[in-house]
Amino acid sequence: MVNAEAGAEAGNVAGVPAGGADIGVIGGSGLYSFLKDVTEVRVDTPYGQPSDSLFLGEVAGRRVAFLPRHGRGHHVPPHRINYRANLWALRSVGVRQVLAPCAVGGLRPEYGPGTLLVPDQLVERTKARTQTYYDGVTRADGVEPKVAHLGFADPYCPHGRKAALAAARGRDWDAVDGGTLVVVEGPRFSTRAESRFHAAMGWSVVGMTGHPEAVLARELALCYTTLTLVTDLDAGAEAGEGVSHEDVLKVFAANVDRLRSVLFDAVTGLPKTADRDCACAHALDGIDTGVELP
Ligand SMILES: [Zn+2]
Predict the structure, then answer these.
(1) What is the pLDDT of residues 222-240, one digit of tens each?
(2) Which residue of 21, 26, 204, 238 is 20 to 30 Å from 223, comparing CA positions?
(3) What was the pLDDT predicted at 12?
(4) What CA–CA distance (Å, rounded) separates 173 from 167?
């Protein structure tokens, strides 16, 4: 299944098969484990180690790099994920467009378990995560990033969202088009008061991993699209005991096959990398960050 054969290099990463990968998928092993000819590549970055190796394979003629967000065996909790290393590693093997599924809680009764929602907005309520590459802090390798302020009004790629929604509908999954994902620090779930507050603000779903992934992708001029799978109704939206981790895993497992089908169809619906014309692709135009991207 996994071969360690060394191929040509993409960027400065050894062992990457010729051509690298131009699409990245951040998600668990259930998404790539059955692909043929997967090449495992270890990537080191100026920001440390990513959550795991990258797994490069082909989906319908497109080269895709998979990265298990929590590592194999799910050992890295949301607040300890090295998001900077993860996005940097993907870009290092050639990735320019990222699809990022994640599990969330529904903040409205109509968004029950099994709902697929492709958000168009984001609210960040994390507390202790590094959110930028351009922080003016000299890296271990001596590179001195400048401070940069990027536009982030629309955090998700319009082309990626369109491809994700079309793919879901093609699989008879009536995905919700748009909504606001609020990202909390975790690892605990919300209190009822927090959950009611999130719902009262008009936000749609709550998760723990969608940020700073989104902004770091933007800082590397990557297209980024998240697909949220509702695994539970959040505490304020239900009368019972609240969310349990067991329920979350159960619902995710029940939906992983169709989520994989949707992701693979979405991959084929993404524009060619050379044709990208969205704001994500031009995020760094005219900005001197002091950092050379891989
Ligand atoms: Zn884009």
Answers:
(1) 999 999 999 988 876 666 6
(2) 204
(3) 57
(4) 9
> Angle at the Cα of 43 (from 39 to 48), degrees rounded to 5?
155
Binding site as annotated, residues for phosphate: 29, 69-70, 209
Give distance in angstroms: CA of 194 to centre of ligand 1. Answer: 32
pLDDT of residue 79: 94
d(CA 237, ligand 1 centre) in Å = 33
User: What's 2-275's CATH class?
Assistant: alpha beta
User: Where are the domains positioned within the chain?
Assistant: 2-275
Range with lowest mean pLDDT among 2-16, 26-40, 269-283: 2-16
* 165: its two tokens: 């929604």
Residue ranges of the binding site for substrate: 208, 232-234
Going from the Cα of 10 to the center of ligand 1, the distance in angstroms, rounded, reads 21
How many whole angstroms from 99 Cα to the centroid of ligand 1?
Answer: 11
Would you list the DSSP string of 93-146? TT--EEEEEEEEEESSTTS-TT-EEE-SEEEEE-SS----S-BSPPPTTS--PP
For the annotated catalytic residues, the residue numbers are: 232, 234
